[in-house]
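Q: What residues go here?
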């Protein structure tokens, strides 16, 4: 099975910069907010429909409705697909969220009460649902790289951006100051990356330290698969999203293939939904990646 993927991971921030010259003026700030939410250095391959829907849900109670973000996001991902950065457009599976939250609930109750000729009752306050903290699996080498990057961003890059801002402010009127706008955008992307790294390092679990059954597919497993439809073998290594590298067949355990393989053993079969349809694989060999 041969996947049509870019030779190396393409980052959201990189595509945003490439798209900027052709993006509608009103779309760029919306896309910048989306990229900050997901993470500027996140790969396009890692962005799935449910992540986009999570972002859209957060915009329900803001001044810019989700449908306007939808237009900008469709243009952004269409641009990325045309440039060959992604094979499948995740926007095809994204649904526009309904108005949710306390304000939306109150509005619906008010409308219902008015229709019934009654006074609307005060909305009940319910505790916020607890969020499950998702473990970020990374190798020890990648952990050290992330720590070094975080240190560099906090010291060197913050100083560099600060100098750019100071220089731009000297030019006067900030309302029509392209240098200032560019520096502020770079500052926003920088701080987003710092927050992203800090969050991932807090949730990090080292792959090398996992006490796992080497015969069972897990994060860190190197798996040889037989595509029963095409009668071909392919080898994947399951890693955390931070170390995904399609060119080296290192795939995320959260990807469709990764999810289908987790917990299975040699000889078992798994069905995987791909852009070309459903493929059935037989697990030929499970090894622990060195």
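A:
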């Amino acid at each position: 099975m041969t996947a049509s993927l870019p030779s190396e991971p393409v980052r959201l921030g990189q595509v945003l910069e490439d798209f900027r010259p052709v993006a509608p003026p009103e779309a760029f700030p919306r896309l910048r907010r989306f990229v900050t939410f997901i993470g500027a250095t996140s790969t396009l391959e890692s962005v799935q429909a449910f992540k986009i829907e999570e972002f859209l849900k957060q915009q329900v109670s803001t001044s810019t409705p989700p449908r306007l973000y939808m237009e900008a996001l469709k243009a952004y991902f269409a641009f990325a697909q045309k440039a060959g950065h992604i094979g499948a457009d995740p926007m095809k599976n994204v649904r526009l969220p309904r108005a949710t939250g306390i304000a939306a609930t109150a509005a619906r109750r008010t409308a219902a009460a008015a229709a019934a000729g009654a006074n609307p009752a005060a909305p009940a306050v319910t505790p916020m649902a607890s969020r499950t903290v998702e473990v970020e699996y990374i190798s020890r080498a990648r952990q050290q790289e992330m720590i070094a990057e975080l240190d560099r961003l906090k010291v060197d890059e913050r100083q560099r951006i600060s100098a750019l801002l100071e220089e731009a402010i000297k030019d006067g009127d900030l309302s029509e100051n392209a240098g200032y706008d560019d520096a502020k955008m770079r500052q926003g992307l920088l701080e987003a990356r710092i927050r992203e790294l800090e969050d991932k390092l807090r949730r990090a679990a080292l792959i090398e330290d996992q006490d796992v059954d080497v015969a069972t597919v897990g994060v860190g497993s190197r798996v040889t698969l037989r595509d029963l439809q095409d009668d071909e073998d392919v080898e994947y290594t399951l890693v955390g999203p931070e170390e995904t590298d399609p060119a080296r067949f290192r795939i995320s355990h959260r990807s469709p293939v990764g999810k289908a393989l987790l917990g299975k053993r040699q000889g078992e079969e798994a069905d995987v939904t791909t852009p070309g349809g459903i493929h059935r694989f037989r697990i030929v060999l499970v090894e622990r990646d060195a």
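A: Context that may help when evaluating the design: Residues 1-6, 100-131 have pLDDT under 50 and may be disordered. The chain has eight helices and seven strands.
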